[in-house]
Amino acid sequence: MKLRFPGKYIVVFALISAVTIICYTAFGHYLSLLLSEIVVGDGNVQQSLIMWMMVFFIMFITLKALYKYYTSKTAHGRIRKMSEDVVGKIDDETNKKSESLMNAVFVHIEKYRSYEATFIPAVIDTMFKLIVIIAALSFVHLNAALILLFTAPFVPLYYVLVGLKTRDESAKLADDFDNMGTLFLNLVRGKDTVKYTQSEKNVINRLEEDNVSFVKNTMAVLKYAFQSSLMLEFITILGIGLVALEIGLQIIVFENISFYAAFFTLLLAPEFYNALKVMGVEFHNGRLAEGHYKKAEEWINKEEKNTDYRGRTESAAAFENVSIKIGSRTLLKDINLSFDKTGLTAVTGPSGLGKSTLLRSVLGLHEPSAGTVYVGDENIGYISDQVYFSDTTIYEYVSGGIYTEQEVENILEKLNMLRSIQNLDAGIHTEIVNHNIPLSGGEIVRLKLARVLMHSPPLILMDEPTEFLDAETEELVLAYLKELKTRSAVIAVVHRKKMLNIADAHYELQNQSLVRCSR
After folding, report:
1. Which of 70, 122, 142, 380 makes a 20 to 30 Å CA pair with 475?
2. Helix H or strand E encompassing 393
3. Beta-bridge partners for 506
4. Where do the structural domains in the chain lie, given as residue ranges?
């Protein structure tokens, strides 16, 4: 069986597990000697027997706890790193696969956790328990060791056959879960469309179909789990019964087994079969977890984002022989351009030709197909045409935890939106949860501008910053942009003519190139 796990951890797991079961065996040895002296001996118990029994028992308990702690800590650390790696691979295309990303991080990787946290430790622990127990019984009571060897293969043979079927069923279950998750997320995002197009019935029917399929596959997996548990219990009871029967015959009929050998055998045999039973259960769970790993594999094995294309420059930003593609379509080709440390540069052109992608390349969110993007400072302000808010409050969003409440209120007052925010129940401490913010589109733009004005980064990127503003608010924002451009470089994708009136430079996207327009 090939384990998907680093070898260095397997070696450490194996060492701890081997020493643990050796300590348990040694404890059983001294306990058997002690009871033998009490039951069939002269009752003169040596203190050394009690001492060694206690030493090995304490070592066994300690190492068992250590094994559980270390394997759990290692697995959780690896899963956390795996999740961070997946999130770190977010790129410009991620918003088109948001459901896949969410399922990979929050569902499939989480369900894969049991593979590394319990399945792998159980495999290693079981292997050493079987080896040490059979080796010990070979010297103490060979017949019992042979019974263990004969009956043990039935457990792994059964759970391998069941596990293979479980893996297939779990893959179907993961597919159904992804389908339901994607449909539900799309339904939430498009709830208004569903309402206005009167498509509720179709959506309900689709949800019911996916739910029926999901329940069916879930019950199939549970059926195999129940069958597996039942058979494992049966095989375990049968194996222990055979060992007990053989010992009983040796004691009653043949009278050729010592109390020590009988007790020692009956102490280790249940541990032997219990290890197999645990392994059987965990094998089933491990196969389920592997099915979820397969679903998350696209993101887990995705190549890391390349940020080597971004260098440093004395100017605010610069492009050197930069070409930008989305898929196989070339948007910009061989761009050479430098931006001064102050001033407003406007970028115009038809929609869908790469203006927003150009800004994302400066941010490090979209790798050019060729060339180098230079930035003067990694501290970049970004005002996008989309709502990007983490779970926070209005105050925390604007201040970044640096500025006081009064300073935040002052900047909001200057942007003529403090009254609107104060009308909210919690004022500037109103929570923004799951990107839900009780402000209009124009107010959201001004809130983003407030954050930029508060922090004054040396480079500010704006994607259609006045798109949702009324005439009065637009004039207010333009006035602040005039002030802002005197101390920062502003690169703005714009559609409105008023924005062009305050621009220091104007470039239009034409024929995969940026052409400077005369003023």
Report:
1. 380
2. strand 392-393
3. 346
4. 7-296, 310-516
CATH number for the domain whose boundaries are 310-516: 3.40.50.300
Specify the CATH class of 7-296 in words.
Answer: mainly alpha
CA–CA separation, 344 and 461 (whole Å) = 10
Query: Residues in the chain, how many?
Result: 519
The tokens of 376 are what? 């003067």
- Read off the tokens for 43: 């009752």
- pLDDT tens for each residue of the chain, 519 residues long: 556 788 889 999 999 999 999 999 999 999 999 988 888 777 777 888 899 999 999 999 999 999 999 999 998 988 888 877 776 666 555 555 555 566 666 677 777 888 888 888 988 998 899 899 999 999 998 888 888 888 777 666 655 555 555 555 555 555 555 566 656 655 655 565 556 566 667 767 777 776 676 666 666 666 666 666 666 677 778 778 888 888 888 888 877 888 898 999 989 988 888 887 777 777 767 777 777 777 777 777 776 666 666 778 888 888 888 888 877 788 888 888 888 888 888 888 877 778 888 888 888 777 788 888 888 888 888 887 665 566 678 888 888 878 888 988 888 888 888 888 888 888 888 887 655 677 777 778 788 888 888 888 888 888 876 666 677 777 877 888 888 888 888 888 887 777 788 888 888 888 888 888 876
